[in-house]
């Protein structure tokens, strides 16, 4: 985080939050590359995974597992890719990117200076964002974990 730019995760818009736990929250990512791309972040401003304590890491991964299991079903995804880059946003978070049938492998996906680039890039409408958020919210409410 630079002095010039506030941390997007410390100041996240509540309307995009999918779910939260004691130490973490899941949200749509503002620079998402496809429908179903979300992040799970720790609530406290902590820059890297290794700076987390065991309770924070466990809490983050429990929330992430529950949501990705539900999101796979909602989207018909083959799996979810996970990426924790942290080169632009210095607040620990993990990206969750669905691999849908017919999608190219993520191995050719590249992060460049101005953001996500690659074969899987697509524009996401506000309607698609809220369709996914609401589907995941409703799914986790009705599931037992």
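-> sequence recovered:
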């Amino acid at each position: 985080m630079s002095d010039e730019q506030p941390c997007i995760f410390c100041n996240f818009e509540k309307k995009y939050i999918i779910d939260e736990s004691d130490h973490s929250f899941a949200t749509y990512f503002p620079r998402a590359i496809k429908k179903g791309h979300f992040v799970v972040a720790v609530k406290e401003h902590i820059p890297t995974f290794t700076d987390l304590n065991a309770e924070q890491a466990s809490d983050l991964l429990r929330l992430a597992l529950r949501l990705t299991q539900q999101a796979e079903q909602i989207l018909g995804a083959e799996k979810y890719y996970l990426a924790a880059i942290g080169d632009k946003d210095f607040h620990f978070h993990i990206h969750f990117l669905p691999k849908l049938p017919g999608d190219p492998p993520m191995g050719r996906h590249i992060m460049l200076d101005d953001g996500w680039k690659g074969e899987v890039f697509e524009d996401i409408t506000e309607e698609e964002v809220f369709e996914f958020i609401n589907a995941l919210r409703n799914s986790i409410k009705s599931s037992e974990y």
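The domain at 14-142 is CATH 3.30.428.10 (HIT family, subunit A).
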